[in-house]
Design goal:
This protein is about 35% helix and about 10% strand. The protein is of the alpha/beta class and about 230 residues long.
Length: about 230
């Protein structure tokens, strides 16, 4: 089986991406990064998902971006936006405070190092531009640019950046994952969890709720009572 590195946060998108990589016949090496995120409950979700979807190994690497990359996800003094309308989320030009500067560039750099070490030709990334929060490092242009970098930054080149969800909305992603046997009850998407429960009010929760509603399937997420 050809090797592939899959960036795995434990969220809905990255979990579906791992399932896609597995269905493509890859031996999947899951990489989770503890980057200084405040919502560390996602790390436990990533471990559950990696085990459930049969990753051949799962590594957690620590690179603390909180000292350099200011974001509501890394700095408690910045409030996570809540109760925004779906029209506001991902509106043209809107880059919310939950954006972590250069996060996907750094995560892909780590994945690239591991892929080259493994001799893997594929790196899977679960970004998408529909039903997303307008992050600049989730766009097709970013994926293409990093893939070009990977060709000149490595000894052998030939490494592909696979972003199979990039043109899908959340409902389509959920339907795809369910067709591949994903248990979304194992995943975590919330930016501001209340204990282990999702807040139900942040952008990530609202998009997740919208996705399950539009897919016409029950949402297995445990939300905090106030949501």
């Amino acid at each position: 089986m050809p090797h592939a590195v899959v960036l795995l946060s434990g969220g809905l998108d990255s979990t579906t991406t791992l399932a896609v990589a597995r269905s493509a016949g890859h031996a999947c090496h899951a990489l989770t990064v503890r980057y200084g995120q405040l919502h560390e409950v996602e790390l436990a979700a990533a471990a559950r998902v990696a085990a459930a979807l049969g990753a051949v190994e799962h590594r957690v690497v620590e690179v603390d971006l909180s000292v350099l990359a200011r974001s509501a996800l890394t700095d408690r003094s910045i409030a996570v936006p809540k109760d925004r309308s779906l029209a506001e989320i991902g509106a043209p030009g809107d880059v919310p405070v939950t954006y972590v500067p250069a996060r996907n560039t750094i995560l892909l750099g780590l994945a690239l190092a591991w892929a080259e070490t493994l001799g893997a030709a594929d790196i899977y990334l679960g970004v998408n531009v529909l039903d997303a929060s307008g992050y600049p490092d989730c766009r097709p242009e970013f994926v293409r640019a990093f893939e070009g970098l990977a060709q000149v930054a490595t000894r052998s080149g030939g490494i592909r950046i696979q972003a199979p969800l990039i043109e899908l909305d959340k409902a389509a992603i959920i339907k795809l994952g369910l067709s591949l046997g994903v248990d979304y009850g194992l995943t975590h998407s919330c930016y501001a969890p209340v204990g282990e429960a999702a807040c139900g009010r942040c952008d990530a929760c609202l998009l997740r709720k919208k996705g399950f509603a539009e897919a016409g399937v029950p949402d297995p997420t445990r939300y905090a009572p106030s949501s």
